[in-house]
Amino acid sequence: MKKILIYITILFSLSVNGQETVYPAPRQVGTTVITNATVHVGNGQVLNNATIIITDGKIAAVGNNISIPPGSTQVNAQGKQVYPGLILPITNLGLVEIGAVRASNDVQELGEMNPNIHSIVAYNTDSKVINTLRSNGILLANVVPEGSFVAGQSSVVQLDAWNYEDAAYKTDGGLHVYMPSLLARPRRVRGAGPQQPDEDPVKEGLQKVDGLKDFFREAKAYYNQSSHTNTNLKFESVQHLFDKKQKLYVHANTVKQMLVALDFVKEFDFDVVIVGGSDSWQIADLLKQNNVAVILDTPHSLPTLNDDDVDQPYKTAAALHKAGVLFAISDEDGQTRGRNLPFNAGTTAAYGLSKEEALQAITLNAAKILGVSDKTGSIEVGKDANIIISEGDILDMRTSQVTDAFIQGRKIDLTDKHKQLNERYKRKYGLKDF
């Protein structure tokens, strides 16, 4: 009997502390009103003592002196800050759970040319990581495949769903290419000094790029044919690059890599986005001329090259903004898994951007790059009610504390594994909140 009681106690503690008890919120019914709010719209505008009306998952009204509909549910945001839901533009969220556990990874396929791979079908809505992002105000994410030269298609998901079909916000919005390094580095052998590589890595990388261009030329010819005897899945998967319904995301950091990426704009007129772009500040004017956007993946990092300023990763966002380049900020750090997104943006606000410009880099700018700005990215009438409420500045890790979050008007549960473990060990050791 004693053993049975122990087993029951263990099962009960697991059910209490398990994130599995956090269910997706039901569809919004009726009207929700956020009152007395300091609203950061996401487009640079700030409204003081404003009201937001949410009906059927959409923002019905926002501004001052707005009448509150009778019978509505009211959320008093007095003394708090209201923001659009943050958007993580590059992540392997839901594809990688524990990097060191192979069975929990579904982020890549065999082979170098996988344009027909769709990340959305592998997205795991039960990932423990998802809820930790929501607690920091991140409500949408672009889920990206990895591991190949041409890795496949990414999709935008909203972070409160039962399955990947429910999560899908914009499916197959872009194709991801990981640019070869194009840097000649000597190969080292254990116990020996530097040696020259057997093959020139620059020449080898450029050959891979030329092969990709040949693939796109053949795909374009396939696209221009009115009918096909046989269906080619790889050609079919890139057809929307030519009509610009999809974007080509090129993962590149050095100037040489980015200049090669610009060839895809010049020859194919693709809508190109540079991902990484740590040295994009050096060719900001050229990126602007070619209408190429940039996603800065990890501002909290060391410079790419030895000659760069030690604080260059913090200053790059301001340099792009000054040149008029559309840019967004991400958090690709494998340790933080995206949680530091708002604080990455906050650092750029200390190095040349204003607070609202930094906020825009993780809201409206990110939505524009991902092709979802018609639905989200700012608190404007007609858009989905993806909204967060914080007790302090969302960009400041000292004061940021998200108290409420809404995805498409649904008030979501902000419980996560971190909070559960915190409560568990506070109770164990009789600790109090500091």
Automatic annotation (TrEMBL):
InterPro entries: Amidohydro-rel (IPR006680), Metal-dep_hydrolase_composite (IPR011059), Metal_Hydrolase (IPR032466), Metallo-dep_Hydrolase (IPR051781). The keyword DNA repair does not apply. GO terms for molecular function: hydrolase activity, acting on carbon-nitrogen (but not peptide) bonds. Pfam families: Amidohydro_1 (PF01979). Coiled coil: none annotated. Keywords: Signal. Residues 284-394 form the Amidohydrolase-related domain. This is Imidazolonepropionase. It comes from Flavisolibacter ginsengisoli DSM 18119.
